[in-house]
Amino acid sequence: MNKRLLAATALAAAAVLALSACSATSSNTGTDQKSEIRVASTDPQLIIPGRQSVAYDVNMAVWAPLAFLNSDGSLEYVQAESIESQDATTWTVTLRDGWTFQDGTPVTAQSYVDSWNAVAYGPNAFENSGQLANIAGYAELNPSSGTPTTDKMSGLQVVDDKTFTVTLVGPDSQFPLQVTQAQTAMFPMPTSAFADFTAYNKHPVGNGPFAFAQDYVENEPIVLDAYGDYKGDKPTIDRITFVPYTDSETAYTDVLAGNLDVAGVPASKLTQASADFGQRLYSFEAPGISFLGLPLWNPAYQDVRIREAISMAIDRQAIIDVIYGGTYAPATAWTPAIEPGTPTGICGQYCSFDPDAAKALLAQAGGFTGPMEIYYPGGGGLDPLYQAIANQLRQNLGIDATAKPSADWAEFLQNRNDQNITGPFFSRWGALYPSQQATLRVFFIKGGGCTNCIPWYSDEVSAAMTAADADLSTDGSAYASVQQIIQKNFPAVPLFFEKYSYVTSPRVAELVTSPVGNPTYRSIVLTK
């Protein structure tokens, strides 16, 4: 499962990996002293950048991106010395000199070209291959039937050891954002990786500030030590230990007890986290947005007025206050507010709670006949949210609405992919880079990454997206026309602009973040 989907569904799973050791900021080995942190994680199973779905934090420690997007929105080159284009279609990437992988081999332009080709090559079945889909030649590596006749994308060319060019299928002004920290498929791999990806997954080697101290073992902690020859900014700590949990509530409790240094906050704890942790609760603005998906294959939802009435009947702020501890914000647009140029407020009256207007609009549409079953992934702590939505629709619209969880994520995903859902359903996404493009593509372009999350795909939207991608301005204003088309058709119900929340032990003085919403562990500040 993609990590950005998992984030909302794995807030409270079952069971726990017992911890026998307390967290620490220092450990002694002879006369050496290491500053370190212990971080709650999900056991990743897949760690390779082109395959991982829940190992973002590990990836962002072991690999360095071409560029890093800072909290102020500025783009900082890391492995790249420059990323330039005259036409937004052909981009020239120049690498910094002297960088090495953690096995001592050099990072070269060929490293990137070979890695991107391997990720994109269809028979390899790398889960994150879609991040490369806009490179010319990707389609040839992923034919609709049969085996590809080549294993190299025509859009990638090595110029010299430090330089390569990337030709896209069309102009895309957002390309520099696509090679930042969370787009892990863009990370380079050393030559040794290509001989045996299974072996590489057991002991990944990257080009970043931390290296694996030992082989990865399923359901065991992952220990990363600072890489002494890293050419970028040196990390503020010497070691990160990622401790796998299957129960986020237990991880939360372990931070409270001082046995762990950082953990994400499960939804069930958001209302009490401030009281439990005070200033050690961090809620980061993030490129995440929640919708109430609607089964547009069901004729009962074809009238746009019914969709708008459902939206107006939901009291978003009440849900945020009661369930999310005030951390989220009501969604007022079709992309998260943190994404530049998002036209906040474009949703207007239809994202405002107005039960009388909602009831009148539903009546104009001829009412809603029969029961409404709201479907969501079970086992992820989402029950209070969907029960609250069902209650509000019953009270405010008189609809016989109920909330029904699936047995697990896999069942939910299969039913949504197969259009085997009759009523409203769970729909959310956390973008991997803060651009409207990253959210709009996923929801509204067929094959964009979240199948049937919003099952409405329009040629008009596709054309408007192509035009917006080609716009050379960087303020995001070009995507306003896309949102206007979506707003007119109102294919889903915008619910919340999300925040990602974390708690820390007293050993952490400051938890640093970036616009992707995850902590930047290489820059964490420890208490002196």
What does this structure look like?
The protein has 528 residues and is α+β, with helices and mostly antiparallel strands. It has 2 domains: 43-244, Periplasmic binding protein-like II (D-Maltodextrin-Binding Protein, domain 2, 3-Layer(aba) Sandwich); 288-500, Dipeptide-binding Protein, domain 3, CATH 3.10.105.10. It has 16 helices and 21 strands. It has helices at residues 3-9, 56-62, 109-120, 138-141, 175-178, 197-202, 248-257, 270-277, 304-312, 316-323, 355-364, 383-397, 409-417, 436-444, 459-470, 480-489; strands at residues 27-29, 32-34, 36-41, 67-69, 75-77, 80-85, 90-95, 156-160, 163-167, 210-212, 222-226, 239-244, 262-264, 281-293, 329-330, 371-376, 400-405, 425-430, 493-504, 508-510, 525-526. The strands form 7 sheets. Strands 13, 14, 15, 18 and 19 form a 5-stranded antiparallel beta sheet that branches. Strand 4 (67-69) and strand 5 form a beta hairpin. The protein is globular and about 70 Å long. The model is unreliable at 1-31 (pLDDT under 50).
